[in-house]
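User: C-alpha coordinates for this one?
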Amino acid sequence: MSASNTIDDIWCSYQITLDCLKIANRSILNNDIGSLEKTGFIGSPQDEAKRQIMQSRSNADDYVILSLWASFERTLLSYVQSESNRILTEPTTNFTYSVHQKIDNEIEYWRVDDILNIFKTIISPDLIGQAKQVKKYRDWIAHRNIKKGSPQNVPPQTAYIILSEILMQLANHECFQTSIQTA
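Assistant:
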Protein backbone atom coordinates (compact mmCIF):
# COMPACT_ATOMS: atom_id res chain seq x y z
CA MET A 1 0.00 0.00 0.00
CA SER A 2 1.52 3.30 -1.01
CA ALA A 3 0.42 5.28 2.06
CA SER A 4 2.00 2.72 4.36
CA ASN A 5 5.17 2.98 2.33
CA THR A 6 4.97 6.75 2.63
CA ILE A 7 4.84 6.75 6.40
CA ASP A 8 7.53 4.05 6.42
CA ASP A 9 9.69 6.33 4.25
CA ILE A 10 9.03 9.26 6.59
CA TRP A 11 9.98 7.08 9.57
CA CYS A 12 13.16 5.85 7.89
CA SER A 13 14.21 9.40 7.05
CA TYR A 14 13.58 10.44 10.66
CA GLN A 15 15.75 7.57 11.94
CA ILE A 16 18.58 8.66 9.63
CA THR A 17 18.22 12.24 10.85
CA LEU A 18 18.55 11.04 14.45
CA ASP A 19 21.67 9.08 13.52
CA CYS A 20 23.17 12.17 11.88
CA LEU A 21 22.47 14.23 14.99
CA LYS A 22 24.19 11.56 17.12
CA ILE A 23 27.24 11.63 14.86
CA ALA A 24 27.38 15.43 14.95
CA ASN A 25 27.07 15.39 18.74
CA ARG A 26 29.90 12.85 19.07
CA SER A 27 32.09 14.88 16.75
CA ILE A 28 31.52 17.99 18.84
CA LEU A 29 32.14 16.17 22.13
CA ASN A 30 35.35 14.62 20.74
CA ASN A 31 36.38 17.92 19.15
CA ASP A 32 36.72 16.07 15.83
CA ILE A 33 37.58 19.08 13.68
CA GLY A 34 37.86 16.94 10.52
CA SER A 35 34.26 15.77 10.79
CA LEU A 36 33.06 19.27 11.57
CA GLU A 37 34.86 20.87 8.63
CA LYS A 38 32.56 22.88 6.35
CA THR A 39 29.71 22.84 8.87
CA GLY A 40 28.12 25.59 10.89
CA PHE A 41 29.67 24.10 14.01
CA ILE A 42 33.21 25.25 13.22
CA GLY A 43 34.01 28.18 15.44
CA SER A 44 30.94 27.72 17.63
CA PRO A 45 31.41 27.13 21.34
CA GLN A 46 30.79 23.49 22.28
CA ASP A 47 27.85 24.39 24.54
CA GLU A 48 26.16 26.33 21.73
CA ALA A 49 26.69 23.50 19.25
CA LYS A 50 25.21 20.97 21.70
CA ARG A 51 22.23 23.27 22.31
CA GLN A 52 21.64 23.52 18.55
CA ILE A 53 21.72 19.74 18.21
CA MET A 54 19.28 19.30 21.11
CA GLN A 55 16.94 21.87 19.52
CA SER A 56 17.25 20.11 16.15
CA ARG A 57 16.33 16.81 17.81
CA SER A 58 13.24 18.39 19.33
CA ASN A 59 12.31 19.90 15.95
CA ALA A 60 12.84 16.55 14.21
CA ASP A 61 10.49 14.90 16.73
CA ASP A 62 7.83 17.51 16.04
CA TYR A 63 8.26 17.50 12.28
CA VAL A 64 8.03 13.73 11.99
CA ILE A 65 4.70 13.74 13.81
CA LEU A 66 3.42 16.47 11.47
CA SER A 67 4.59 14.49 8.43
CA LEU A 68 3.23 11.16 9.65
CA TRP A 69 -0.15 12.71 10.39
CA ALA A 70 -0.35 14.47 7.01
CA SER A 71 0.31 11.21 5.16
CA PHE A 72 -2.10 9.29 7.39
CA GLU A 73 -4.90 11.83 6.99
CA ARG A 74 -4.48 11.88 3.21
CA THR A 75 -4.80 8.09 3.17
CA LEU A 76 -8.04 8.21 5.15
CA LEU A 77 -9.47 10.81 2.77
CA SER A 78 -8.42 8.72 -0.23
CA TYR A 79 -10.12 5.68 1.26
CA VAL A 80 -13.41 7.53 1.76
CA GLN A 81 -13.18 8.94 -1.77
CA SER A 82 -12.55 5.49 -3.23
CA GLU A 83 -15.58 4.18 -1.34
CA SER A 84 -17.57 7.07 -2.78
CA ASN A 85 -16.39 6.10 -6.27
CA ARG A 86 -17.75 2.59 -5.68
CA ILE A 87 -21.22 4.07 -5.51
CA LEU A 88 -20.82 4.87 -9.20
CA THR A 89 -19.99 1.27 -10.14
CA GLU A 90 -23.54 0.23 -9.34
CA PRO A 91 -26.38 1.41 -11.55
CA THR A 92 -26.19 5.12 -10.84
CA THR A 93 -29.26 7.06 -9.78
CA ASN A 94 -29.60 10.79 -9.31
CA PHE A 95 -29.42 10.18 -5.56
CA THR A 96 -26.24 8.06 -5.59
CA TYR A 97 -24.61 10.51 -7.98
CA SER A 98 -25.53 13.39 -5.63
CA VAL A 99 -24.06 11.51 -2.66
CA HIS A 100 -20.86 10.89 -4.60
CA GLN A 101 -20.64 14.56 -5.66
CA LYS A 102 -21.24 15.76 -2.09
CA ILE A 103 -18.42 13.59 -0.79
CA ASP A 104 -16.09 14.45 -3.64
CA ASN A 105 -16.67 18.21 -3.35
CA GLU A 106 -16.68 18.57 0.42
CA ILE A 107 -14.48 15.87 1.94
CA GLU A 108 -11.53 18.25 2.28
CA TYR A 109 -13.65 20.34 4.69
CA TRP A 110 -14.78 17.48 6.93
CA ARG A 111 -13.47 17.34 10.47
CA VAL A 112 -10.81 14.66 10.85
CA ASP A 113 -12.41 13.39 14.06
CA ASP A 114 -15.61 12.72 12.10
CA ILE A 115 -13.68 10.85 9.44
CA LEU A 116 -11.90 8.80 12.10
CA ASN A 117 -15.29 7.93 13.63
CA ILE A 118 -16.40 6.44 10.32
CA PHE A 119 -13.54 3.96 10.55
CA LYS A 120 -14.67 2.68 13.97
CA THR A 121 -16.84 0.23 12.06
CA ILE A 122 -13.76 -1.61 10.76
CA ILE A 123 -10.95 -0.53 13.12
CA SER A 124 -10.93 -0.93 16.90
CA PRO A 125 -12.49 2.15 18.56
CA ASP A 126 -9.61 2.06 21.06
CA LEU A 127 -7.07 2.34 18.23
CA ILE A 128 -9.09 5.16 16.66
CA GLY A 129 -9.07 6.88 20.07
CA GLN A 130 -5.29 6.59 20.16
CA ALA A 131 -5.12 8.14 16.68
CA LYS A 132 -7.21 11.03 17.98
CA GLN A 133 -4.63 11.55 20.73
CA VAL A 134 -1.93 11.70 18.06
CA LYS A 135 -4.05 14.27 16.21
CA LYS A 136 -4.45 16.40 19.35
CA TYR A 137 -0.70 16.37 19.85
CA ARG A 138 -0.17 17.11 16.14
CA ASP A 139 -2.52 20.09 16.44
CA TRP A 140 -0.56 21.33 19.45
CA ILE A 141 2.70 21.09 17.51
CA ALA A 142 1.24 22.89 14.50
CA HIS A 143 -0.60 25.66 16.35
CA ARG A 144 0.71 25.88 19.95
CA ASN A 145 -2.61 27.30 21.11
CA ILE A 146 -1.81 28.09 24.74
CA LYS A 147 -5.50 28.70 25.52
CA LYS A 148 -6.26 25.03 24.80
CA GLY A 149 -3.33 23.80 26.89
CA SER A 150 -0.77 21.21 26.00
CA PRO A 151 -2.13 17.69 25.39
CA GLN A 152 -0.36 14.56 26.50
CA ASN A 153 2.98 14.19 24.72
CA VAL A 154 2.96 11.50 22.03
CA PRO A 155 6.48 10.28 21.28
CA PRO A 156 7.27 9.88 17.56
CA GLN A 157 7.62 6.11 17.81
CA THR A 158 4.20 5.80 19.46
CA ALA A 159 2.60 7.93 16.74
CA TYR A 160 4.27 5.83 14.05
CA ILE A 161 3.12 2.55 15.61
CA ILE A 162 -0.50 3.71 16.03
CA LEU A 163 -0.85 5.19 12.56
CA SER A 164 0.95 2.26 10.91
CA GLU A 165 -1.31 -0.23 12.67
CA ILE A 166 -4.43 1.52 11.42
CA LEU A 167 -3.11 1.68 7.86
CA MET A 168 -2.11 -1.98 8.00
CA GLN A 169 -5.57 -2.98 9.21
CA LEU A 170 -7.16 -0.92 6.43
CA ALA A 171 -4.89 -2.52 3.84
CA ASN A 172 -5.89 -5.96 5.06
CA HIS A 173 -9.61 -5.21 5.31
CA GLU A 174 -11.74 -6.68 2.50
CA CYS A 175 -13.60 -3.39 1.95
CA PHE A 176 -10.34 -1.54 1.44
CA GLN A 177 -8.97 -4.13 -1.00
CA THR A 178 -12.19 -4.03 -3.00
CA SER A 179 -12.22 -0.24 -3.18
CA ILE A 180 -8.59 -0.17 -4.32
CA GLN A 181 -9.41 -2.54 -7.17
CA THR A 182 -12.39 -0.46 -8.35
CA ALA A 183 -10.74 2.96 -7.94
